[in-house]
Amino acid sequence: MTLLYKNEHISCTNYAEEFNKVFTLMEIPEGHTVERRFLNTTFLVILLQGDIEIRYEIDKYFTPQLGYMFLLPKNKQITTFARKATTLLLCSFTNDLKLCSRFSIQQLSHFISESTCQNPYCLKLDIRLQSFFSLLVDCLKEGLGCIHYHQIKRDELFLYLRAGYTKEELALFFYPVLGQNLEFKDFVLMNSRKIFDVKHFALQANMSQSTFNRHFKETFNETAKNWLLLRKQEFVKRDIALSNLSFSEIAEKYKFSSTSYLDTFCKKYFGKTPKEIRKEAIGKTV
After folding, report:
1. Cα–Cα distance measured from residue 265 to residue 51, given in angstroms and rounded to the nearest whole number
2. Residue extents of the structural domains in the chain
3. Structural contact between residues 166 and 174, judged by C-beta atoms closer than 8 angstroms
């Protein structure tokens, strides 16, 4: 398509900026690794072209297929490695958004079973969504960037999700952003990179330790102590493997009294020294 009067669109005060656009096209060259930005936003991600590997937590991976979409909840730290040149379409939204005027995302909580796991769940695009995204991408590439257009297309997208997928499928897909205590969950996730002990977390939450532990167990279905230890392992290993921080800076960041304690931590949980982890990571990236 050809966008007429393009300069008028771009100069309009309602033209979407980086901070308020709903849809974003993202290109990743072959062999490149991208660290996630915008941790405070939830994204619905569609793989339009290419081949990627999503790395998350300590050593977990999943590989979305072409023609599928997956959910990237806010405060979820991931790394994306492009095995081929890749194009992604990202759609930002909030947890209180509605699938239609009579059915909110949070109502999907009633369709979650006890056996539901927290691994990423991908939805295959039906014919309706394939056509929708094809036209949307053409319009975005031509420069149709009115913020109202973005918002209308997001509403249309969620209406198609409501119409074309079962509530059980949608509950699996949106599971990471469903729940009764979302404010507490967001608080924990936002602070999990800098607080690693239950006592300090409870103080920050203005709760007793027992109350915090109870809320945590209800929200994450896991003990706070174990969950925080796993997050510390994840962040320490990520910084060793992907950052340019020195080992002494990493030790200070994660409250190790010395680099020797960092060495001990890594040997205990990863079976390798920080030096070995970094060397191995360099060999895997370009």
Report:
1. 34
2. 6-177, 182-284
3. no
For residue 160, is pLDDT > 90? Answer: yes
Q: Could you tell me the pTM of the whole model? A: 0.80
Return the CA Rg of the chain.
21
CB contact at 8 A, 112 and 178: yes
Spell out the long-range contacts of 109-114 with Cβ–Cβ below 8 A and sequence spacing 24 or more. Answer: 109/171, 109/178, 109/179, 109/180, 110/171, 111/167, 111/168, 111/170, 111/171, 112/171, 112/172, 112/175, 112/178
pLDDT digits (tens, 9 = 90+) for 81-110: 999 999 999 999 987 788 888 898 989 988
Tell me whether residue 59 is exposed, middle or buried, using C-beta atoms within 10 angstroms of its C-beta: 0 to 12, 13 to 18, 19 or more.
exposed
d(CA 66, CA 46): 8
Q: Which of 205, 210, 203, 211 is nearest to 183 (CA)?
A: 205
Judging by DSSP bridges, how do beta strands 33-35 and 78-93 pair with one another? antiparallel
Pairing of strands 68-72, 123-124: antiparallel
d(CA 251, CA 256): 5
Q: Is 27 helix (H, G, I), strand (E, B) or coil?
A: strand
Domain 6-177: give its CATH architecture.
Sandwich (2.60)
Give the tens place of pLDDT for each residue, 53-68.
Answer: 998 877 788 899 999 9
What kind of fold does domain 182-284 have according to CATH? Arc Repressor Mutant, subunit A (1.10.10)
* 176 DSSP assignment: G
